[in-house]
What does this fold into?
Amino acid sequence: TTFIRNGETYDYCYLETIQCLLEFCDHVFVVDAGSDDGTCEKIEAIDSPNLTLIKRDRKEWFDQQGTGRTKLCYFTDIALLAAQEAGYDYSFYLQCDEILHDYSYIPVREAIKSNIAGYLCKRINLWDSPYKKLKVAANRMPCSGEVVRLTQTEYRSYGDAESIAVPALDKRWVDQIVIYHMGFVRKREVMKDKVINMQENVFELGHHDPKLDLDSVFQPKFWFTEDELELIDVPLP
It folds into this structure.
């Protein structure tokens, strides 16, 4: 399951996310939250009988104003509900700036045999380039390094939809189920507007990070130095 809005405008890797899910899932449910930039058309062009695109009107996106981060939960949960109503036992939820590493496909299938409500997954935060990852303390990470994404379909997301809330959590597979967060290593010319949009229009913070105004394009070095990065240790998925 996943959801997207205006993936073309903000340079999300949503098509790669969807193709990734199609490689190891029985079916993929994608919610489009009222895109008006050609994103829907790109998804509709994917030729697969195992893909369902759920289109929601852009009014529904704007109707969530005032909900802040939980707006992301609202559309995430539409996809999760669709998976549940279709009769599937488990869902793997990816955000549309993420890819699950292909070496994790088999561990995902093996993990659910234990019939636990949810499973903890590792998330690698890429920074500066697709070949570098952050090596800073958890409280300095831009996004959580561990998330709950493989769960039984009856459960729903919480907070800003980084994870899904479950009553029982299996942590044994965390190092084998690995998500790569690509969100900060896309086009720098687009990244500034993307972050401002997330901070002001989605999270509704009322302001954006002033570091974004120091240059006309996104500059990773304003947040983390070179010695806070290290090369990824396996090929990209």
Q: What stands out?
A: The mean pLDDT is 96. The longest helix spans residues 70-85. The CA atoms of residues 73 and 89 lie 20 Å apart. The first strand starts at residue 2 and ends at 4.
